[in-house]
């Protein structure tokens, strides 16, 4: 028995929206990173489900690239959060306000 | 391809040279980890970007990527994952030019910095990503090139680790960048879902033939395209993902602000030009999703240029004013995409590309002048710049050229590119109301921009300084970069005809 592709899309959209909600409401930079990971993984669910649906491997392959890039992004992000902590003694993204528009 | 019988992949040479330069810098760094030999490091980066520039110009002149009997034709690499045509080479030239200017200027700006080799290798790596983006022809390679550009940029903005402004700017840039790349990759997954392919020309083929389930997935496809536009808007600092730009440009080291606002913006635009002209043919896509995507770009263009210019007019801080002005210029270039639905839309796009090249010189130069002012330590507001011309007439003369050129005052090249954009837009508009509104917005915004650009020139040349200054130092690298950019802004005039032709041809080849 196979699950229809639209349920996968619904699942991925739910995951994406949870991630987006986290991005918009969380003030902790680490939780922000986790929320972005959710959004990236929502895209991976889509890619893999659609690869199965279309019967080609392009999507699965791209999902591998996405994972690698997500890891690289987290590495750079954690580095920035570390210097943020050293300068501001906090990882709250609303604390640094030396500049205002 | 037959330039001296080189293999096809050699057509990517401008990008490969940059990648090689980054590796050489890493090698130097691993041999001598704490090297502060600025001449060697900066020299390597400059040599790499200049040879990338030379090769890209040589390829353009030799006719690589150009169609026609005497030329070598468009070059496909790795089954169409990369494509080298006139558009790609044109943008590789812009990116190499900006990288060269920025690395020359960094020689002095980073005088006492601990992490020299890291800095230069990150700059060159980001430039590699931008260069690759110009040649990418598949959503996979585009996404990888996009991240290769973004990740070093985040680190570069935050590279002054003990400076609160720099760290805050890096954090904000990273947060919005991570969000927008997640949105972009979700858009890619939806487009893949609707069409079953990630290669741009194949996406277009599927959309035009209407094979399979594409017709029923119009909603997904439309949402996917909207999300791709979001990713593009981040890279080009356009509404609605523009709010990182003033923060990041203000907090970052000035050469990095110059790099991001010129080269990174150009890379974002080549991505947009490539994706939207190749993958989403207008009629077929409109038939499936029911909305004309040029309309989205028209709205974004008007909102972006108006917001950028009005916000710039209210700034007291020079770097922040330049940041908002760079948002305004993104709005002008977006017109190139908005006009694609009309006859002669390819000419408008060519004019927009021409404006990007001129912008690459004048905006980089303006930010590097701010870098020079930071080097002198004169402060950041308009008042702090009062009367600088007495002490540094050459640099201030160059800055006046940049400001008038950015505002679009004749006879500088900024005027001619804007004029070309305007006339092509009017020609294409005919009785198209949307395009006429765009043309009106362009004129009104240009007039407004003259106010805040001339305000800076007035501060430099006319106002009396607030306090007496000692003699100002004349750092070689920064001076050389600022003067070179000013000379190019002026010298582009006699060369304007052929260069504009190259841009128009490149645009026509992609749109056709």
UniProtKB/TrEMBL annotation, chain A:
Top-rank lineage group of the source organism: Archaea
Give the classification, highest ranks: Archaea, Methanobacteriati, Methanobacteriota, Stenosarchaea group, Halobacteria
> Keywords assigned by UniProt?
Membrane, Oxidoreductase, Transmembrane, Transmembrane helix, Transport
Q: Name one Pfam family in it.
A: Oxidored_q2
Record keyword Transmembrane present: yes
PANTHER family associated with the record: NADH-UBIQUINONE OXIDOREDUCTASE CHAIN 4L (PTHR11434:SF16), NADH-UBIQUINONE OXIDOREDUCTASE SUBUNIT ND4L (PTHR11434)
Q: How is the protein disposed in the membrane?
A: Multi-pass membrane protein
Q: Transmembrane stretches, by residue range?
A: 6-24, 31-55, 61-85
Query: Might you give the EC number(s) for this enzyme?
Result: 1.6.5.11
Protein's organism: Natrinema altunense
Stated family: Belongs to the complex I subunit 4L family.
Annotated GO molecular function terms are: oxidoreductase activity, acting on NAD(P)H
Which NCBIfam families does the entry mention?
Answer: PRK05715.1-2, PRK05715.1-5
Q: Does the entry feature the keyword Membrane, yes or no?
A: yes
Name where it mostly resides: membrane
- Listed name of the protein: NADH-quinone oxidoreductase subunit NuoK
Where is the protein situated, by its record's location annotation? Membrane
Q: Can you name a GO cellular component term?
A: NADH dehydrogenase complex
One biological process term in Gene Ontology: ATP synthesis coupled electron transport
Automatic annotation (TrEMBL), chain B:
**Which of UniProt's keywords are assigned here?**
Membrane, Transmembrane, Transmembrane helix
Locate the transmembrane regions by residue number: 6-28, 40-67, 87-107, 119-136, 142-161, 173-194, 214-234, 255-276, 288-310, 322-342, 348-373, 394-413, 433-453, 477-496
Q: Give GO terms for biological process.
A: ATP synthesis coupled electron transport
Give the GO cellular component terms, alphabetically: membrane
Give the residues annotated as coiled coil.
Answer: none
Q: Which GO terms describe its molecular function?
A: NADH dehydrogenase (ubiquinone) activity
Membrane-related topology note: Multi-pass membrane protein
* Pfam families linked to this entry: Proton_antipo_M
Q: Where in the cell is it found?
A: Membrane
- Output the InterPro entries linked to this UniProt entry: NADH-Q_OxRdtase_suN/2, ND/Mrp_TM
| All copies of domain NADH:quinone oxidoreductase/Mrp antiporter transmembrane, residue ranges | 136-440
Keyword Metal-binding assigned: no
Task: Report what the protein is called.
Answer: NADH-quinone oxidoreductase subunit 2
Q: Which organism is it from?
A: Natrinema altunense (strain JCM 12890 / CGMCC 1.3731 / AJ2)
């Amino acid at each position: 028995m196979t699950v229809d592709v639209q349920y996968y899309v619904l699942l991925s959209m739910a995951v994406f929206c949870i991630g987006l909600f986290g991005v918009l409401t969380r003030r902790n930079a680490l939780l922000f990173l986790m929320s972005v990971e959710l959004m990236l993984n929502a895209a991976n669910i889509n890619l893999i489900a659609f690869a199965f649906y279309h019967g080609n491997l392009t999507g699965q392959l791209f999902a591998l690239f996405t994972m690698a890039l997500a890891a690289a992004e987290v590495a750079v992000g954690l580095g920035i959060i570390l210097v943020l902590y050293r300068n501001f003694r906090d990882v709250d993204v609303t604390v640094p306000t030396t500049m205002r528009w | 391809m037959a330039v001296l019988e080189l293999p096809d992949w050699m057509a990517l040479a401008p990008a490969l040279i940059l990648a090689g330069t980054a590796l050489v810098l890493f090698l130097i760094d691993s041999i001598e980890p704490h090297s502060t030999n600025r001449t060697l490091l900066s020299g390597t980066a400059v040599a790499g970007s200049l040879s990338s520039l030379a090769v890209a110009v040589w390829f353009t002149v030799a006719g690589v990527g150009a169609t026609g009997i005497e030329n070598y034709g468009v070059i496909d690499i790795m089954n169409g994952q990369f494509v080298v045509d006139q558009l790609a080479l044109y943008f590789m030239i812009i990116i190499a030019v900006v990288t060269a200017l920025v690395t020359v200027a960094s020689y002095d700006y980073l005088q006492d910095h601990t992490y020299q080799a890291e800095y230069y290798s990150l700059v060159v790596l980001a430039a590699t990503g931008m260069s690759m983006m110009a040649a990418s022809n598949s959503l996979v390679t585009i996404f990888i090139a996009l991240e290769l550009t973004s990740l070093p940029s985040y680190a570069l903005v935050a590279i002054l680790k003990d400076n609160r402004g720099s760290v805050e700017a890096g954090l904000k840039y990273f947060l919005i960048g991570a969000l927008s790349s997640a949105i972009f990759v979700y858009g890619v997954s939806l487009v893949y879902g609707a069409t079953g392919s990630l290669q741009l020309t194949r996406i277009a083929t599927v959309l035009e033939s209407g094979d399979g389930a594409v017709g029923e997935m119009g909603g997904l496809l439309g949402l996917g395209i909207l999300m791709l536009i979001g990713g593009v808007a981040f890279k080009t600092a356009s509404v609605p993902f523009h709010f990182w730009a003033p923060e990041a440009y203000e907090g970052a080291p000035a050469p990095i602000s110059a790099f991001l606002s010129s080269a990174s913006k150009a890379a974002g635009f080549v991505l947009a030009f490539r994706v939207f002209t190749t993958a989403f043919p207008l009629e077929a896509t409109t038939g499936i999703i029911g909305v004309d995507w040029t309309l989205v770009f028209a709205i974004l263009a008007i909102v972006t240029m108006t917001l950028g210019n009005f916000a710039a007019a209210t700034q007291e801080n020079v770097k922040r004013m330049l940041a908002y002005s760079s948002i305004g210029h993104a709005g002008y270039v977006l017109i190139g995409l908005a006009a694609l639905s009309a006859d002669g839309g390819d000419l408008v796009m060519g004019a927009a590309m021409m404006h990007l090249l001129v912008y690459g010189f004048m905006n980089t130069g303006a930010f590097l002048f701010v870098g020079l002012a930071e080097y002198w330590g004169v402060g950041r507001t308009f008042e702090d710049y009062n009367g600088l011309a007495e002490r540094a007439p050459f640099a201030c003369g160059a800055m006046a050229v940049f400001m008038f050129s950015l505002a679009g005052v004749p006879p500088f090249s900024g005027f001619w590119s804007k004029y070309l954009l305007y006339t092509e837009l009017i020609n294409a508009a005919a009785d198209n109301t949307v395009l006429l509104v765009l043309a009106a917005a362009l004129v009104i915004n240009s007039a407004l921009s003259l106010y805040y650009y001339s305000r800076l020139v007035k501060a430099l040349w006319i106002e009396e300084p607030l306090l007496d200054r000692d003699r100002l130092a004349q750092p070689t690298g920064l001076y050389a970069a600022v003067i070179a950019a000013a000379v190019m802004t002026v010298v582009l005039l006699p060369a304007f005809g052929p260069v504009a032709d190259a841009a128009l041809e490149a645009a026509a080849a992609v749109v056709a």
